Sequence to fold (291 residues):
Amino acid sequence: MPLPVFRQVKQALTNLNPADVREAAMKPVRVGLVAASQESLGAMETFLVPPHLSAQRRVEALRMLHRGGGPDCDVEIYESSLLRPASAFSLDLESPDECLRRILRRRDDLLLPLARQFYPFRKPAAQHVIRSVAKENALFCLATALPDVVPLVSWIPWAVGEFGSDAAFLTMNQIRMAFLLAALSDRTPGYREQRSEIASMVAGAFGWRALARELVAKIPFGGGLLPKAGIAWTATFVIGLSLERLYRLGYGFTRAERRAAYEEAYDHGRQIAGMLLDGLRKKEPARPASA
Fold:
């Protein structure tokens, strides 16, 4: 990697603090369960705290479940056969995934502690993080390439400082994603703890940069924007999938699996980049009428 890009990545890393991620993941969360019978309550508890967890993890998680719910609960989950308040969520144990996704969408402030404590939340939480960060990276590539919409980078609420290259921002954001995925997987996020994953992402930054520039140069009249943003989305998405499997199973993608995942995801990445570009152009400031 050229020295200037490495310096930019290093500077970007000063904006990341894994201690903040650890603190957010360790936040206590109270989940209320409401069901028509004790048997149903037991089934809901078993779903949220499955028996394959260690005895210590099961005890910790069960302490955060409260039968009957109540005003002190951060989230209330009702059995699907019961009427529920508008603020509560309905859980059908025959198809529970939609309930979990609704909770994470509405209470994204609790995404890390819910996933860390309650195993069924981990996969949808990881998907949410991966897609969100991939979208941010694609958006950044587009916004910085369109002079009239550069201020719209402020839509990314945590973005601070200025970046001399897309590669620096994308790498920083991928490292942030690694911290989030580790935390929600009940792993310890940190530079030392994830040094091999971080080294791989930093090393890959120059490869992304070279490929994106090559595509942009070959396609005239700005048509290279979509391939460039599509690569940003796809590379981040595939890195996220590999990290999720690493923290869940102990091993990530092989080189062949990464290539296959990249080829499968790239068309989708370009489509998302196209939608983001349309959205950016609709939000461009109106040009003054010529005299």
User: Anything to note?
Assistant: The chain has a mean pLDDT of 83. The radius of gyration is 21 Å. Residues 47 and 238 are 29 Å apart (CA to CA).
